Amino acid sequence: MQDRCTEMKEKIQKKLMNGYLLADLPKMAWQIPKNFSKVMQVQNQRVQALAKRAWEIPFYRERFEKAGVRPEDIRTGDDLTKLPVLTKNELREWMGSLKDLPEYQDWICDTTSGSTGKPVSILFSPREKAYMKANWYRVMLCCGYHPLTGKMMSRINMHDVNPGGQDTFLQKLGLFRHEFVDQYAPEEEVIDRINAYEPDWLYMNKTELMRLVLYAKRTGKKIFHPKFYDPISEKVTENDRALFIEQLGPGIIDSYGTAETGACMLRLPGKDYYVVHNDSFVVNVVDDDGHLTRQGRVIITPLYKTDLPLINYEVGDRAVMRTSQGVHFITDMEGRLNDYFRYEDGRVTSFFEVTPVIAHCPDILQIRFIQKSWDLIHVQIVRDEQAKMTAPELEEYLTSSLNQIFKKPFRFEYEWMKVIPPDENGKLRMIVCEVA
Question: Is the pLDDT of residue 191 over 90?
């Protein structure tokens, strides 16, 4: 009986979400605008509406009052920084206190991968979840892919409905075609599935896609070049980008977001910056005091999430932001999965600082740094078999170049690999600090 009720609930949710999705998608900006004035007006209107709604919620009313802020003080996206940053721990505690209450029994409760610690549960009303999905379709439309007529292929996801089942009625008519592939199957099997389906749009976690392109490079096996492909969920370095383009073609998309917020900004092929979906999100970069800055911590506010808002949500990334005519653009992004190199006196070195050493060396295909102690770094590394430098030469290059950047010299030990295994959550941190 319980299984039957659950099944009926899921069907009702799906129908509601499909209706909301079809209503929301036409309202979104499907192209990156040349003039942002209209979309920024929409952002300001939604920011003001969100502030009024948040004032009605006890969790946010308390935050407003502690900051000495009222809804009428919030007029623009920049004004949101008058309110405190929302941390993962605060979100985990707040959502955890709500998710079992009767009024949220028909809501969708997603869980993050736990890549930065304990997983976070996040509640979405059916309307919010539908908007998040519509926003993903908008990302595709901005790139030039049409989900109605195109062919999509993705990894199997626990949240996908019946990924191994039969095509839906619309898919049988050639609409909204979507094929799923087991990302954990042997590389050759996954590549054969991609080659047989020939998707217009392909997306997987970056580490999963990297496993395939490293195998293709090592064995010479060809992979079909999709019109667009998106290595999701993890930082894509310039070395990664070069290898992806070599093996999968030029259609690489960098869509940035989180499980909690949805896809909030997009880097198109050939561009060196991210454009924010300003009608649906505010992305700010703040310093340790929560003030706007050029380089600092990324905080995201999804404007569509008004039933249970996320205001100034700190995702754990750092970025560089430039502002032009009041519009924010992100020019550099440091992935949230990266730790810091740490020193005994409390100082740190970030991935930003060592990126040039790796980016300027195409012989390195994949790398991970594991700091074992205050003076020892273990380096896992994959080298291009057609590399100009030998393994000993690369070791000398890295040791010398990195020690010029570090605040004190480190000893290095190198482990040469064919592919670096991901962490337990399926992702790959590039810096792992094991020093207590």
Answer: yes
